[in-house]
Fold each of these.
Amino acid sequence: MPIGIVSEPGREANEFKFITPDDEKLKTGEFVYYNVSLETEDEDSDLFSKTHKIFARVINRDECRGYPDSFLADPEVNPKHVAKKLGVISEDMELYRMTAKIIGYYDTRLNDFTNPRIVPKSGTKVELAPDDDLEKFLTNIEDVAEAFIGDLLHRNAGAVDIKLPVDNFTSTHLSILASTGSGKSYTCSVIAEELMKPDSRAAMLILDPHAEYHTLKEIEKMEEFKGNDGYKPKVSIWGPEDIRIRFAELSFREIISSLHNPSDAQEQRLREAWNRIQSSDDYGQYYSVNDLISECIPEDGSDAISDALTWRLRNAFDRELFDHSRNLSISELLEPGRVSILQLDTISAIDQQLIVNILFRKIYRERINCERNRDTQLDFPVFAILEEGHRFAPANGESRSLPILRTILSEGRKFGFGIGVISQRPSKIDDDILSQCKTQIIMQIQNPNDQDAIRRAVESVGEDLLSELPGLTPGQSVVAGDSVNTPFLCKIRERHTTHGAESLKTSKRWRESWTKNAQVPDKVVDADQDKGAEDREELL
Amino acid sequence: MVSKKIGKVIGSNSHIDYTCEIYRKRDKDNPPTPADHSFGQFVYIEKEIDGKNIHLIGVIYDSQILDPDQGRTGPKLAEPHEQELFHPSYIEEKMTLAGIALLGYCEVDDDEFCSNEHCVPPWTIEIDDIVRTLSDKDFLKFHEVDGEINLGYYQNLMELAGPFGTDLLSKIIDQLKDMKPDEEKTLEVIQKNIEFSKRIKGV
Ligand SMILES: Nc1ncnc2c1ncn2[C@@H]1O[C@H](COP(=O)(O)OP(=O)(O)OP(=O)(O)O)[C@@H](O)[C@H]1O
Ligand SMILES: [Mg+2]
């Protein structure tokens, strides 16, 4: 059934306007179509004419006939009733002029939309695009595993399932961008769930700086994740105590940049020591910070430079994170059908960058080895999620993980290393990194700088969809990029697992805490009986 | 208020604009009082059409007084049977004419309105048709469509009544508000709107 009639061409060459009385079904972002008969070639190059559905997205809506303002004088009175009393036809009184942007017809040979560049004539009937067509045409999941992330916004729940092609976004990188609390981690968890289903069995890594992904563990017990062939996903959680960096993994640059303000002489001495260790047969893959310190001390005993270096090296590396021999083992970490969650919540930002740098470099190296048919620990592709992406790949400012991330984002697809970058501050992420994420899930964003960053990085998202961003509620998103045939609005589905990042119930915590404190009989203690009184004296 | 004969049709300016001569005191036993033909008074003219009893509904939107002695030009004098009345004596020298705007009609069955239409009636009124006041009950009935007040004749009346349209409608709405308190708010929006636009025009 037609819902509108084309009235005129739009301002842009690719747009047209149509009139509709419907104010329910036709929101901006909705898909419509009109029929056009086109000359097409068949296999024998004979021309025949075929009717095509030309799809278009509604990008704007103006009221062109509505109630006079004076009918709206009393907020308690429905203008419809006023109109009715005055004998004005009150049904379909309002008319809207919609602007739609032409996407094209779906070419089943290309599996994509083709835009014939024909603007509909005025008078052409416009219809709502059928659910089935949209489900088939919005994304292209033929021959690949699919990730069911939700359904098309504005349609009934379940009417148009949105399924992203797994192979696409896990290799050409994904970004999930939204203000805090809009559903980034939630969406990422939905994707993780999908990737662990029997059809995908991904080798997945999540860098989890807020320790909120542990609830994914629940999938190990869920029926829908089990395969007919005995497949069961594994979820491993690595706490800070499991995360170790073998000291020998650090490059000279990483070591020197961790030191507090080293002098040129100190740097010189350290470089000599480090070079000796690299060329010596005594150490190989295993040496500790103490080994490096010993190498800094001249044979005739310590001097001012070695003392200074000793203090600086101890200060930087004499910590549990750096180990003589233990290391995060990538073969334990990564395996198809396993998602490994690295909980980084008690680790400093700088160390987090260091961990990402070392880990990703190693994975990347192994993946290159694999693709070049050399010995490798990773003979399968890897997909890694980076929460707080702006911390690891900042637009300006130093980060130890930035260079390797740049490399992986631009080259990783060739070697089967895909990254999912999550951030609430797109404007603070390195531009190259952002624009290399070829699939984007963008949720509510108010900040104009962040919107600009998205505008720059994501070519395919039109202004019409960008203008929807501030009004999205948690779970509502714009999906764009290489994994979809045209950008659209999507409601992300509910998780199978519980969400591990429910926002803090502040006032409840305060109340609980108050009640607990109130139960302590005598709250005021004499100063000398107070816990720690002895230490206090000592300190003085 | 019950229905009362107040005069008869003596002419028209258009299909919906009629002139009624109000009965003089000595014409009838129960002559109309000034209140019966005041500005905004609803009236009806009864017609038999295709066996149906139709009341054409109108409202007094204008009035005019004539003195037959002065020039003897009124429409009245053109009517021969009236002349006898006039000529012998000049006792009754004042004559009151009322302008009536037709707003619609009702079908009447058993003295009850059984349908109402706010529109230009398809039938014409004839000279000498009797004009009666509309009872309060029928006034309300005429305005109710599906149980709700309707002023479907609004546009026609505003155009016809010209400078008096606003006051006339405001008066009608006042009456309706009293009769249907639950629709007061919506009516008020309309009333304020017409009063406001008149004042704005005057500024
Ligand atoms: N698809 C969804 N369906 C239902 N609820 C959702 C959905 N997405 C998000 N929410 C709700 O929004 C809340 C915030 O989501 P989430 O923790 O993913 O935000 P975030 O963007 O990761 O925030 P932060 O920047 O603080 O990490 C969740 O607790 C959940 O209740
Ligand atoms: Mg989050």
Amino acid sequence: MLNYIIRRLVFLIPVLLGVTLIAFSLMHLIPGDPARSMLGEKATEEQLEALREELGLNDPLAVQYGRYLGQVVTGDLGKSVKSDISVAEELANRLPATFELTLFAMGVAIFVGVLAGVIAAVKQYSWFDNISMTGALFGVSMPIFWLGLMMIWLFSVKLGWLPPSGRLSHEIELTTITNLYLLDSILTWNWEAFWDSFKHLLMPGLALGTIPMAIIARMTRSSMLEVMRQDYIRTANAKGLSRFPVIFQHALKNAFLPVLTVIGLQFGYLLGGAVLTETIFSWPGVGRYVYLSILGRDYPVVQSTILVIAAIFVIVNLITDILYKYFDPRISYD
Amino acid sequence: MANQDKKNRQVTGTSLLEVRNLKTHFFTKAGVVKAVDGVTFDIKPGETLGIVGESGSGKSMTAMSIMRLIPSPPGKIVGGEIEFEGKNLLSMSEKELKKIRGNEISMIFQDPMTSLNPVFTIKKQMVETILTHQDMTKKEAIDRAVELLDLVGIPDARARLNNYPHEFSGGMRQRVMIAMALSCDPKLLIADEPTTALDVTIQAQILDLLNRLQEEMGMSIMMITHDLGVVAEVCDRVMVMYAGQPVEFTEAATLFDHPKHPYTWGLLNSIPKITKKKEGQKRLEAIPGLPPDLRNLEAGCHFAPRCKHAMDSCYSKNPSYEPCEPDHFVRCLLYEEKEEVLSND
Ligand SMILES: Nc1ncnc2c1ncn2[C@@H]1O[C@H](COP(=O)(O)OP(=O)(O)OP(=O)(O)O)[C@@H](O)[C@H]1O
Ligand SMILES: [Mg+2]
């Protein structure tokens, strides 16, 4: 097992190298002069030259790539052309925000999705099955921006229950430790901040979790239906076990494997791809950072953030593969 | 033929299980499948009852009806009685049934490769069975599991507990299934074709094991099989089923020596081991034709279209299931007519 993890980690190196190459080329594949596209039409020739010099754009590509690689390896992700703030510093603040949002969204999606899928399968063709699976069909095809805007309109504008943007109200004090606000407020026993950050998290979390929830529910249902027909379920019933352990242990542990694949993919995807949700709810996370950087043509930021997101994606996949072993002992990693 | 004499266990008179006129039907879109349609038999304490019949004749569904595990919908027990130690299984609540399943009546299945849960260790699967029915600590349950694995002949039992099913061979898995089924000292073990999926040598080992365990533990066994060789090996009495109905029911020795029903004749003729006894290497004779579609059964004897001895009346008159001799039930007009002839005299 440990061998396997080490092997996989080693295998990450070429993958990440490939990602650096793609991220690097991004800046150079854009037609025209990167310096000009960053600084805009009004920039003077001196300004452009200064930026080129600063970014080393005058050197041969190979040299540039080598330098970039050297920086990345030492943890230097460059800095924003616009704000001069280092990307690493910015990400240290923003990654936890995205992480919190994703964890919340996936937590709700997994809990509700799996539960709904199991009940729908056990009570196949019941009203619950019909309603939840029709709901899931809508969920999968729901445009997030529309859902998000509708939520803001209803819960913030009309009802005034939930804040439309941000992570925490200005007047609330919170000592940060992990930068995951829910966790920090629990750790510092700050219930006011907990409640406030929870209210901020609720809408973006649900908006972001809708699609994965729907996918997980449908996947769980079909997988459970398949498993419930298996011989070992008949054995479990014939042993006199109660319904609960038969369904939630014997069946679900088997049915969970394909669901786990979906969860892993969705998780990685959300971690990097919460762009839309973070933008609609002004959530100060990585997605919004990427979005703003692309708008502002802040290429060093885009380049490094993509690299980080890709790395996270790959690591989440690795964790998924390891969890597989827990759910299916037949998988051998040797 | 049947080696009853090898057995020294006690078969007593009163029935442990009594099934009377059991009817289990499946209500499908294509029609009502009468999978079990009027099955009557009993099992005595310590006895091994064989149930034989072609594929689809309703053997498994009879067993599943006794366990009250018929998939519903589409299945439903629509009639009859099942009494276990005088208690009516058909009127029991799910809660009461759970105390019977795996505890007083347990079951093993045809395919040991798929009957154990692949994602749990043997330990988990055995211990949960024991703890469901017995008041024990987890440690005691583990000890009991080791004892049981020893009993069914799994070497190095304590270490093997931590293995997953895929780490055992087919024969070993069936032993694990047997150990699990016997973990609460059941009074009745239902074995649904326990050797069909195994190699011939392993088959014999499993049958020997069941024989030995029955001698030691004294439970009754309901042995479902389509193999008359298995019947000869282990059964005291046999019920032959055809199209959801019993057609003949008697002592195993009697069935081999004086079979009454033409379907039983056909079955015996299709088994080389049995037939070569007298006539030497007689050619294997499969019963021509196919079993009827259980959705639209016609009037008369269901076997008539395949029966060499069918008379005109067989196609119109339902034969009744009567003893033609004491303790020898048969469902065939050949014997009813005879009786009529006799009574006319
Ligand atoms: N879920 C179901 N829906 C409809 N019909 C069913 C269902 N389950 C079983 N049947 C029918 O019940 C009949 C009896 O099946 P059963 O499994 O008892 O046969 P069997 O004698 O055990 O055969 P085999 O030797 O193949 O195991 C079959 O004809 C089958 O088509
Ligand atoms: Mg069967």
